[in-house]
Amino acid sequence: MQRTAPFSNIVIVGEEIPPCAGGVAQWGYWLGRKFRERGMGVVYAAPAGCARPQEYYGDAFEVHAVPGDDWRHRKDRRVFHALYRLWRSRRPALVVCLTWKMARVPLALRPFTGWRVAVLAHGMEVTKKRERWRRRVGLRWIFGSADLALAVSRYTRDRVAEFGVDPDRIEVVPCGVDPVRFQPRDGALFRRELGLQGLPVVLTLARLVRRKGHDLAIRALAEVRRRIPNATYLVAGNGESSYLESLRSLARQCGVEDAVRFLGRVEEDDLSGIYSASDVYVMTSRSSPSTGNFEGFGITYLEANACALPVIGSDTGGVADAILDGETGYLIPAEDVPTLTDRLLRLLGDPVLARRMGERGRARVLRDLTWDRIADRFLAALDRRTGGRRPWSAGISRQDSSPVEPLRT
Length: 409
Prior knowledge:
By secondary structure, this protein is of the alpha/beta class.
């Protein structure tokens, strides 16, 4: 028998939706899909320019493509018209806003509609231009008055609290991963295609922007190859062409041009294969206090762990919530190439240690960080903040009847 929830009509509103690969879009997509699996009616409202036809999403949820361009300057108008149409047709009980700017209109309309409003803080959208007083006042109002204020990491929560919001009212609901899509596979096919048989392989799968720290891995690789001469570095992902050229130039300067492979964009169906073809995953992200740019969480660490791959990341931003240092991988100080070199040598030189860390990473994903578990955490947080109005126990899903355990960090 299918259960029915008071929040049976939910609207998720954001400026991104898959196939956009960003963490915000993934968080919105998977939460919407898991809500729908729990018997709730879900509509995902997103700009028509980035949304695909309904057939692309199947029965995961209904897509409401919001027409119009110039979202930067007409965002509130677009959101108002979309929510007005959905209010008349669906009477949603909950509006989930994937960024704080999406929450202005839902909060303003709340006295007239009675809906609840949840708002998510992911990363630099809450820290850039933070010196502007109007922005600070707006953020304080939105996160301070939302029915459910969320952050994907403790670091992001603390950044929101700096605007004067009580940190105790901000629930940490991190990113998750699909353990079926991301699981250990036979990486031999990819190794053969890339000529990597028998080679120690380090992987970074991320946008080509300086913040992701590819240059640090190239510098470390030059030192690693003094001990492991055939070590190879795979760089997967698209991005800034100027940054790509600077990485190619750096590889030449470091004498590892032949050991760095730039793969470009990897197809979605090939992601678990490219993880499984590697020995270590590295993304040494930077934080920039002057621009407010930081890693809100780092979903690729979880994807790699789900494929039983050990991971290395800089202890910046919300990365400490994605990696259990010494258990699922290593956290290293920011910009610390010698420590990165040491950790790479440890994992590449000790396959047993690497395998043990990768297995622990997958076990942690299955225990705490599947999207089913993240959806349970959202609904449990909603219960706490709205008086527990759902008719079934907090944290119990139809797919997984085990109780929600505290998130290990």
